[in-house]
Design goal:
The protein is of the alpha/beta class and 255 residues long. 42% of the residues lie in helices and 15% in strands.
């Protein structure tokens, strides 16, 4: 059975190992004794905190990276490779997040290179796609999602697509209280499934998890994840509060 996926993107937080240790204390307390029967839970902290996370040996929370570089090793000052992430104990890596697109100019060509590097290293990829506010105002959501998805998956074979989890992440909803309706999210999901079916066939498409990302909170989780029948969610600021994050995961797990 295909499990749900709930991912916590901690972004550039917290600012010290001591703070992260306190975060882990709270997270460990929240997950203790809990069994997520239908859901995988992943936390993506800054890479400098990977060892602290691994040392905790949390049984029901996996480790993910927020970003990787597309080369395996070499003279690329400041970058971290998918191999490094894998060898540190991570199982996932995000790629294509709207903030990477906005602040670092990542386009589909770069995202495609990173995605293929993630898969080559044996990690699962969390691929983010979605329109910005100007594209939305011009009613270009369908066009944008199609373009981003097709170009990001260029050269990714049918045997690898089941290791790609796709997040519909409209950038205008990230870090805001602007939340799409269930129907808008469902429409995006159907577009994604249609494109995947056209590229890989119906059976392969059904193995891909499609998540929602963009200001997920407990009060919105039914609207953005449950009602549109998404396979989970990418959680931003609420992932910084373990109590809230685990409540979101529990809600998704029970539906």
């Amino acid at each position: 059975m295909k499990k749900n996926l709930v991912v916590g993107n901690m972004k550039m937080n917290p600012t010290s190992p001591a703070e992260f240790e306190r975060y882990l204390d709270a997270l460990e307390k929240e997950v203790k004794g809990k069994k997520f029967e239908k859901t995988e839970v992943v936390i993506c902290p800054p890479a400098i905190y990977f060892k602290q996370f691994i040392d905790r040996k949390l049984k029901n929370v996996q480790l993910g990276a927020q970003n990787i570089f597309w080369e395996y090793q070499g003279a690329y000052t400041g970058e971290i490779s998918s191999g490094m992430v894998k060898n540190m104990g991570a199982q996932y890596s995000m790629v294509g997040h709207s903030e990477r697109r906005k602040y670092f100019g990542e386009d589909e060509e770069i995202i495609n290179l990173k995605l293929k590097a993630i898969l080559k290293s044996g990690l699962r990829a969390i691929l983010c796609i979605g329109e910005n506010i100007e594209e939305r105002k011009r009613n270009q959501t369908v066009e944008v999602v199609k373009k981003q998805l097709r170009e990001a998956l260029n050269g990714v074979g049918a045997g690898k697509i089941e290791y790609v989890d796709i997040v519909y992440e409209p950038s205008w909803a990230v870090g805001s209280d602007n939340v799409p309706t269930s129907d808008e999210i469902l429409e995006a999901k159907l577009i994604i499934k249609k494109i995947l079916s056209e590229i890989y066939g119906h059976k392969a498409m059904e193995r891909v998890r499609i998540l929602y990302g963009g200001s997920i909170a407990r009060c919105f989780v039914n609207q953005v994840c449950i009602d549109p029948a998404m396979d989970g969610g990418l959680v931003g600021r609420e992932s910084l509060v373990p109590y809230e994050f685990i409540r979101i995961a529990e809600t998704i797990d029970k539906n």
